[in-house]
Amino acid sequence: MTTTTTTDKTSRLAAARAYIERVRAEREAAAEKRKRKLPAAICRVCGTNVPAGTGTRGDDPNRRPDAMKHAPQLAEIEKLGPLVDFWRRTCDDCTAADAAGELEARAVSTAVGFPVAISDALAVVGLMRRTNPVTGVVTGMFPTAEVSGRWSGRPWGHLTPEDRKSIRATLDDVVGDTLPKRHKSGACGLCGARAALVWWVGPSSLRWPGSDATVHICDTCAEVWNRRGGPDDGDDLRRVVVELATGYAVPFGLRAPEGVRPFAASAAADPEGLDEPWTFSVGIRDLQREIWTARPEVAPAAMREQAEAWHREEEAERAEASRAEAEAAQAAGW
Ligand SMILES: [Zn+2]
Ligand SMILES: [Zn+2]
């Protein structure tokens, strides 16, 4: 008797679970179907093209009366192409970034051309929201595609030079003089960065090609360079270069590869600097790959995932090699 009751209970429970599961699956399928039906549109935030069936559709901010929804002319309006969603669609990229100020950071960074901290970006967007003190009407806001009524089909491509200028000016107000600046002597002689918060006089062995001017280095490089005793040249300086470019501090007793050079002493040396620090030589890139493959934990956050993939790949290759070796040894033994 007891067994039967338990079985009944178990099967009832299983049936209930299956039912819940089915309802959930149906609901998900319905949502997926609704999404697939979405036409191509424009991202209301960044103004990029949102392909059919992608993006997130928000509520209509100016919710039309129900009668309007079925008005015959609406079908005509809906044929209008990019604006078909009346600025209700957000692209997948903006939707994914829409957490804890990441979207704002991306927007402001794109507008000014260098990475801006989330807190500063949030302050910029907040400050750009201006309200008429008398009427309470919002008179200005951060120029998203929707706010500006412009779009280009590329993320933030609709920003005009004036937009960028006013965003930059607002950012100046927010961060005061803590913005990275260029140095009159040129880029960072170690990594090639164009702008820095604080500039330091660099290693005395470094000069830009054809110039006697002292080479300066950025604050990021200076931190490690100073910590390692501010070496002027030789292996000590190369070890600093390895640590800066890869995050890996060369242990005592090991030498840095001979070919590793600071930017100002490399074949690509140019006081104009680089878009991306440390991208001036194949040797450095190879070294980064070698070190990050062996030690993914020292790779910069943006490269960590890639480094871990390289690491797993190498482990697998090594395991395969030793398996083949063992097999060969066994075969030879027979
Ligand atoms: Zn977008
Ligand atoms: Zn630097």
Task: Tell me what the structure shows.
The chain has 334 residues and is mainly alpha-helical. The protein has helices at 2-36, 66-69, 72-77, 92-97, 102-112, 118-127, 145-148, 161-175, 219-227, 234-246, 282-294, 301-333, and strands at residues 41-42, 49-50, 56-57, 89-90, 130-131, 138-140, 199-201, 216-218. The radius of gyration is 29 Å and the shape is flat. The chain binds zinc ion (ZN) (2 copies). Residues 43, 45-46, 48, 90-91, 93-94, 155 line the site of one zinc ion.
* Main beta-sheet strand count, sense and barrel state: 2 strands, antiparallel
Strand proportion, as a percent range, falls in 5-15%
Helix fraction bin: 40-55%
Q: What ligands can be seen in this structure?
A: zinc ion
Shape: flat
Largest beta sheet: strand ordering:
1-2
Number of strand segments: 8
Q: How many structurally independent domains?
A: 2
Alpha-beta classification: mainly alpha
Write a concise synopsis of the structure shown:
The chain has 334 residues and is mainly alpha-helical. The chain has 12 helices and 8 strands.
